From TrEMBL:
This is Outer membrane protein, cobalt-zinc-cadmium efflux system. It comes from the Bacteria. Keywords: Signal. InterPro entries: MdtP/NodT-like (IPR010131), OMP_efflux (IPR003423).
Amino acid sequence: MKRIILLLLCTLSTCAPAWSQQSDGGLGLAQAQRMAVDGNHDLRLALAAVQAAQAAILAADTAPNPVLTLQTVNINPSLGIGAGPLRGKTVDSSVRIDQQIERGGKRALRIDNAQYLELASRADLADVRRQLRLAVTQAYYDLLAAHEKREIARDTAGLYGSSLEAARRRRKAGDLAGADVSRIEVDALRAANDVDQADAELQRAQQTLALALGMPQDAPRLRATDPWPDLPAPGAEDDAADIAGIEAALDRRADVRAAKARVGAAAAALRLALALRTRDITVSLQGEHWPQSAADAQGSGNSVGVAVQFPLFVRNQYQGEIRNAQAAADSAAVTLEKTRAAALSDLARSASDARVAASRRRRYESELLPASARSADAAEYAFRNGAAGVMDVLDARRTRRATLLDAAIVRAEHAKALAAREAARAGATDNNDL
């Protein structure tokens, strides 16, 4: 627990200021994930829940307090209480201490329940960290894709500018019709609009990542500097490997571990409810003092007494508490089944998505991008030398631009699919190291 708090304080005091001193706004993925730990509200709430669960263990591991009773009796309204010191008053006085003794292992069952709930809160904290890392990673790769799209839009706009100059020269030379030049001008204006659109998308991506990092004021400066994740070799992720990974990762999932801990807590709570039928006893020790009075001329005296109290289960057999605890235990068991099913679906889906995204990216980078580049280069060369028409070069250029943008999207989808698969399989095996 101390290590968690130390990590948060370290991030707060060092990581964010170190980045804020950089002038270019460059940010790596690992650094972004560390920065997101600081100031994240969900993480701070989960940490507070862990601290509350630890306090509940201390409260559970406590025996009932004794009760002190001071009492006066035998006060005669007609004669009064007499004169003199307190011990000489004509009233009887007594001092009694009552101590309840719990039976049926109630204290141990309370501790057991509280410890299970503390394990669940720690697993919840780990799950919040897992989801936070995934959200930051996906926002980071969206920003990287937005940077790439803006560069593509700018390069395309620059290419249209140079093509427009060449077209105007050919029109002056009488080699190109004015209508063809107008077509190029229209596409050049569209490319300029695409640059504006790419700038807007980049700003939105910066705002999204900045919000995840808890530093919206620095959004305009954010710039993703890490490259795209490497592509795995073809066939490196076969179905057998995925199935083995899914089976191994399922019980390590933080949400599954939290649900299991709550099943244990509910079982302990049910045993505690059943233990209510074991009677607790209360032992009392009493001392009495009576002074000399008109009714008792023999003088003062002292006496002691011992009492034992047993509750009588006449009206309440604790059926309501037992049934409520049983319903909570059943609900916890169903929640565990639901959580395991959702985790299993998440693991299988993320593995499939990562495999499909890798195949699509591999096809773009090995086939589609080179083919579109060759087609565009050939069309540009032919157009500049008068061997191709305007529509041919415009079509080739649009295809090239669309392929580049699709490739950027596919890279981002692959990177986010890898992050989702890693998040789905993530889990701490040691509840003390979250």
